[in-house]
Specification:
Oligomer: heterodimer
Shape of chain A: flat
Largest sheet of chain B: 5 strands, mixed
Strand content of chain B: 15-25%
Distance between the termini of chain A: 9 Å
Largest interface: A-B, 55 and 62 residues
Helix content of chain B: 25-40%
Number of helices of chain B: 17
Strand content of chain A: under 5%
Radius of gyration of chain A: 24 Å
Structural class of chain B: alpha+beta
Order of helices and strands of chain A: HHHHHHHHHHHHHH
């Protein structure tokens, strides 16, 4: 088991270095640069001297190789540098926004798991019944509906419903407040995005749970357990569900990693100042240092999520850790 | 000279404000918090001297004072400049080359230290003559300035190299925030990350990408102002979010402007709580042709392209869906220097009879051997108004048999393609804060002179007319020269295809009072005269 864990951890480093090189090169292959965006995107005039000064200020007038060396040296020291756009430390910029994305991701995951596992299991146990039909329709609708669209529609519904009831349209606040400062306001901000993301997330997990359960329920050891006269609850909970959860855990892990940096559109729809919105902004502004750091963050989370999933696999299925 | 334009400016200002709700004769009420939306994520820095984006302006303007400004009670005028920190608008001496400003006494920065002429001079020197390693975005607007000096604690003097009508409007630039000299001396970069001015509001907090907060400055030098107790600016990049936030009263106003459809949506939703103001916007939509590429080096081809566009009918239709409206030359339509409609009709592409215009366009193309011309229009990946206008002109060109495809790029690559000359024809915008035609047309000068002119042409005749206009101090003569300039650039040489000007629509809750729209979203943003009628 220890060797399995060490192998998995060692694989993290080449993955991160590969991602670092890739993002560094790709960002610089895009035509234009942050100074052009900064000085010229408003349609206003600027001088050549101002452009040259801007390039010198942020160091993009130096050769690529020097910039890459600095980047790698910074990575080695966990120093991601200064945002070329705001001039603030990248870590500080990310730290401001990370809790928002993390909170939405965690809430969405809780909602998804709370919906997906019970409904997926029931759907499998009552295969082809009306319950199964309803659950399947619910999950297919979730897969087919883009989260951002659902987000826009849900805000409009809230506005219309509150206007119809009270005469004054209401929508959640658009400026984030941390949970510990004002829990009620925080929840009113985070609830809608978490539900809209959680629904799609649940749909994916629900279908996975259902199909995994159906497969497991046809296994010989389940038939044996029934033949032994074990009560159904124990068969389902202890023998069937635990084994069926293996692929579900994989899906949940991958989805969670995606949510941290991938809520690009949803964060914009709900005006959440999270990592996804920062990613869009930094790519639009061609802020190399920020984009590099964000990609590294997302890659790290993805790699760590996979690591956790692999470890959970080993815990759930002894065959994995013994192999 | 400025006074010579006053009567014309008053008429124009009245016309521009015709759509405004009645704001006169109401007594301002004290108190309340104004929540407004900033349609962006965050400004690059908080230093207005180095930035060009409106985001810096909407974030920081309420905290700062300026030397002179557009009259906040008459911001629609393009010539009505008044003192902010100075006591009286100066009469130039020394043949129009020296401007002496007396600074108000008793003005304090928010840290309690007194504001003097030394601070004003230090700030303006930072803008006009940036030190080595300092970035000043608008230093090129002040090539006429020779020296800025504080002669005593209450007097700041601007010495010019030559007299020009372009100086005072340039000085009224809203980005000319006055910083404290003591801080600048210690760290010239301090204001990039910090806010400390002498404006109507004191800085409270700034959460990047979330909100900027300010509170009433009790020591503000204008008696009774500001009327509000506090301000909160919320950053909201998505238009749908901003419309929803306005509808639900999460915010009262968004100062940049919304497209016609969004304004109509809010009007329907808010009913009697809805108000809006509209103005021509000091952003010109311009098509630039790369004259290094064939056949665009041929003036007949360029003239054909401008003759094909039916601006008069197109503007009317486009204004229903896009942020554009008024047909004009390359001089802001509301400015006294702008040509009249009759003069516009003399310019190719602005003729009354579009059929005649298109027949001439076809003839020119045939003569130039460019029948069946096809090319790619480079456009910016921004909906309003770029993509709307882009689709429209492609259709117009199609009517003379020219086939055009559109290449849409994000802002960075779009700018890079322009600078690198990697385009045939590009749709651009020429935006400015203060309406200052002599400075605003500089991007149209020969490419060796204006680095923002991506047309890749050299035109000594154009430069000759411009130089005369720039140094002319008689308004009538200057107007005549500017028309010559416009005719030369838009018709004779057809370097630039000028399209309908942007149009600014600011919808808001009717309880917001005191604010008046201007031709630019950079102007009149200190919020001192806003009050809430709740």
């Amino acid at each position: 088991m220890h060797r399995y864990i060490i192998n998995r951890i060692l694989l993290v480093f080449p993955t991160l270095i590969g991602a670092a090189a890739l993002v560094f090169i790709l960002m610089r292959l895009v035509p234009g640069d942050i100074c052009l965006v900064r000085l010229g995107s408003g349609g206003t005039s600027f001088s050549t001297q101002a452009l040259a000064q801007c390039h010198a200020d942020i160091g993009i007038d130096r050769p690529w190789i020097l910039q890459f060396g600095d980047f790698l040296w910074g990575l080695a020291r966990f120093d991601f540098g200064i945002s070329m756009w705001s001039g603030k430390p990248v870590v500080q910029e990310i730290a401001t926004r990370f809790p928002i994305s993390l909170e939405v991701a965690v809430m969405a995951t809780i909602i998804a798991v709370a919906i997906a596992i019970p409904l997926g299991t029931i759907s499998a146990l009552r295969q082809n019944s009306w319950i199964d039909l309803v659950v399947r329709t619910f999950s297919i609708a979730g897969l087919a509906t883009p989260s951002f669209w659902l987000g826009i529609v849900s805000i409009l519904i809230v506005l219309d419903v509150t206007q119809a009831i009270s005469g004054h349209p209401w929508m959640p606040p658009i400026d984030y407040v941390p949970l510990w400062k004002d829990p009620l306001r925080n929840l009113s901000i985070v609830a809608l995005p978490a539900i809209t993301i959680g629904y799609r997330y649940a749909a994916v997990s629900m279908r996975m749970t259902r199909s995994a359960m159906l497969e497991v329920l046809r296994e010989d050891y389940i038939r044996t357990a029934r033949a032994k006269g074990l009560i159904n609850r124990i068969i389902i909970n202890r023998h069937a569900l635990k084994n069926a959860l293996l692929p579900v855990v994989t899906v949940i892990g991958i989805e969670f990693a995606f949510l941290i940096g991938g809520l690009v559109v949803t964060e914009q729809v709900f005006n959440l100042n999270g990592i996804g919105r920062l990613m869009v902004l930094s790519v639009q502004n061609q802020d190399y240092t920020m984009t590099q750091a964000l990609v590294m963050l997302v890659v790290t989370i993805a790699v760590l999520s996979n690591l956790v999933v692999d470890l959970l696999y080993a815990w759930l299925d002894p065959r994995v850790r013994l192999a | 000279m400025i006074s010579g334009w006053k009567s014309c400016a008053v008429v124009l200002a009245m016309a521009a404000t015709a759509a405004m709700p009645a704001v006169a004769a109401e007594t301002p009420k004290r108190g309340g918090t104004l929540t407004y939306l900033i349609p962006a994520d965050a400004p690059p820095s908080l230093d207005a001297h180095r930035e060009t984006t409106y985001v810096t302006m909407h974030t920081g303007a309420p905290f700062y004072s300026v030397l002179i400004r557009v009259n906040p009670d008459n911001p629609a005028s393009t010539t009505d400049f008044v003192c902010d920190l100075c006591t009286e608008m100066p009469q130039p001496t020394d043949g129009g080359k020296t401007y002496t400003f007396k600074i108000r006494q008793g003005v304090k920065f928010h840290d309690g230290s007194p504001l003097t002429a030394e601070d004003a001079a230090a700030s303006w020197n930072k803008i006009v003559f940036p030190a080595e390693g300092m970035l000043s975005a608008r230093s090129s607007n002040f090539e006429m300035v020779d020296k800025v000096a504080a002669t005593d604690p209450q007097t700041v003097v601007f010495h010019l190299k030559f007299a020009t009508a372009a100086f005072l409007p340039a000085l009224a630039d809203p980005y000319g925030w006055i910083y404290e000299k003591r801080i600048l001396d210690k760290d010239p970069h301090w204001y990039e990350k910090n806010i400390m001015g002498s404006g109507p509001f004191k800085f409270v907090s700034y959460d990047v990408g979330q909100a900027i907060r300010g509170e009433r400055n009790p020591d503000y030098y204008r008696p009774g102002q500001p009327y509000l107790d506090a301000i909160v600016g919320l950053y909201a990049p998505k238009q749908a979010t901003r419309v929803d936030a306005l509808r639900s009263d999460r915010a009262a106003i968004e100062f940049r402007g919304l497209p016609p459809a969004a304004s109509e949506e809010l009007k329907a939703a808010l009913g009697k709580d809805f108000a809006s103001q509209e103005s021509d916007w000091n952003c010109g939509s311009v098509v630039t042709v790369n004259e290094k590429k064939k056949p665009f080096d041929d003036v007949r081809v360029r003239r054909a392209l401008t003759l094909a566009i039916d601006r008069w009918h197109g503007a009317e239709a486009l204004s229903k869906i896009a942020d554009v409206r008024t047909v004009g030359s390359l001089i802001f339509p509301g400015d006294p220097m702008a040509p009249s409609t009759e003069q516009l009709h003399e310019i190719a592409g602005f003729w009354r009879d579009i059929d005649k215009s298109r027949a001439e366009a076809k003839r020119l193309l045939k003569e130039a051997g460019a029948e069946g011309l096809n090319f790619e229009l480079l456009n910016r990946d921004v909906d309003q108004p770029y993509k709307y206008v882009g689709i429209w002109i492609i259709d117009e060109w199609n009517k003379i048999g020219v086939k055009v495809t559109q290449k849409v790029l994000p802002s960075g690559p779009w700018l890079a393609a322009e600078r690198g000359g990697d385009f045939s024809v590009v749709l651009q915008a020429n935006c400015h804060s203060i309406v200052n035609p002599l400075i605003d047309v500089q991007p149209y000068l020969s490419s060796s002179i204006s680095k923002q002119n991506y047309g890749n042409y050299e035109d000594p005749k154009e430069q000759e007319i411009y130089d005369k206009a720039f140094h002319e101090t008689d308004p009538a003569m200057q107007k005549q020269l500017m028309f010559q300039f416009a005719k030369h650039v838009m018709d004779t040489e057809a370097h630039k295809l000028v399209l309908p000007w942007w149009h600014r629509i600011v919808p808001y809750h009717a309880y917001v009072k005191g604010w008046k729209i201007s031709p630019s979203h950079y102007l009149n943003q200190d919020l001192a005269n806003i009050w809430l009628d709740k």
